[in-house]
Specification:
Layout: H1 2-11, H2 20-69, H3 79-100, H4 102-108, H5 116-142, H6 152-179, H7 187-195, H8 203-212, H9 216-245
C-alpha cells in the first residue's frame, strides 16, 4: 500500500513535500525501508508465532478426533509449505541486507555499480509486482465473502482498533520521537511514519495462515472488512497527516 499511496501523493499538486520527482524518489526509499523492516519482523516473529499456535490447535484437534473416532488425522501442513514460507522470509531478509550494507549496495545499486544489471533486472520484475500483488489481494479477499464463525462485533472492534486507536497512538509515538530528536523533522519522512499506523493489515499474514492452515477463513473475513473500510480511513488519515506535518 505504501508503494501505491506515497507516489500518488507526491504527484498531487499542493502537497507539502516539494518537487514531485524528489518526493517520489525519497518517498519510495522511505516506503521500501519500512516494508523491509516489517518483512523481517513478520517472517521471523509472526511466522513462528502462528506456527506455534497452529501446532497447539492441530494437536488438540487430533487428540479429539482420536478419542471419538480412534483416528489420527494429519492436520498440519506439509514441510514443503513451511519451507516455502521460510524461503520467502529469508529472501526478503537478504534484500534488506543488500540495501543496508554499503559495500554490497555499491556493487549492485547505482549508475556506476559494476553489477547494476542485476539491479536493473530486479527493478523490471518489481515494477510488475505491485499490480500482481493487487490481484492476489483481491483473490484472497473474495474468500471473506463466504463468511465464517467470527462475529461481526469482533470484526468491527478489530477495525476500530486498526483505524481509530492505532493511528492516534501512532501520532503520539511520532510526536514524542520528534520531540526527543529520535527522528528527522522531514515532512515526507514523518508522513510515511504516520501512514504506517493507518494501513490495513499486511496480506502476508493471510499467506502465513494459508501455509499452516490455521484461521485462514477468519483471516479472510477480517481482511475483507479492513480493506473495505480502508478506502475511507486512508483517505481521511492521509489528509490529516499531510496537514499535521505541513
Amino acid at each position: 500500500m505504501l508503494l501505491i499511496i506515497v507516489p500518488a501523493v507526491c504527484k498531487e499538486k499542493g502537497t507539502p513535500f516539494g518537487d514531485s520527482d524528489v518526493c517520489s524518489q525519497y518517498g519510495m526509499a522511505y516506503a521500501s525501508l519500512s516494508m523491509a523492516i516489517g518483512a523481517v519482523f513478520l517472517w521471523s516473529y509472526v511466522y513462528h508465532l502462528v506456527r506455534v499456535f497452529s501446532e497447539d490447535s492441530g494437536n488438540k484437534q487430533t487428540e479429539t478426533m482420536h478419542e471419538d473416532l480412534d483416528l489420527t488425522l494429519p492436520l498440519l501442513p506439509s514441510s514443503e509449505s513451511e519451507s516455502s514460507g521460510a524461503v520467502e522470509g529469508k529472501i526478503k531478509i537478504v534484500g534488506f541486507m543488500i540495501g543496508t550494507i554499503a559495500p554490497i549496495r555499491n556493487l549492485l545499486i547505482g549508475t556506476e555499480a559494476p553489477l547494476r544489471v542485476i539491479q536493473d533486472s530486479a527493478s523490471l520484475v518489481g515494477e510488475a509486482a505491485v499490480p500482481v500483488v493487487t490481484l492476489i489481494v483481491g483473490g484472497n479477499l473474495i474468500k471473506g465473502l463466504k463468511g465464517s464463525g467470527i462475529s461481526i462485533p469482533l470484526v468491527l472492534g478489530i477495525a476500530a482498533v486498526r483505524y481509530i486507536f492505532l493511528p492516534l497512538f501512532g501520532i503520539l509515538i511520532v510526536k514524542r520521537a520528534l520531540y526527543f530528536g529520535l527522528v528527522y523533522a522531514d515532512p515526507l519522512y514523518l508522513f510515511v511514519l504516520l501512514l504506517q499506523f493507518a494501513l490495513p493489515p499486511s496480506m502476508n499474514i493471510g499467506t502465513i495462515t494459508q501455509l499452516f492452515g490455521a484461521g485462514e477463513t477468519d483471516c479472510s473475513v477480517i481482511m475483507l472488512w479492513t480493506y473495505g473500510l480502508a478506502t475511507i480511513s486512508l483517505t481521511l488519515w492521509s489528509t490529516f497527516f499531510m496537514w499535521l506535518v505541513a
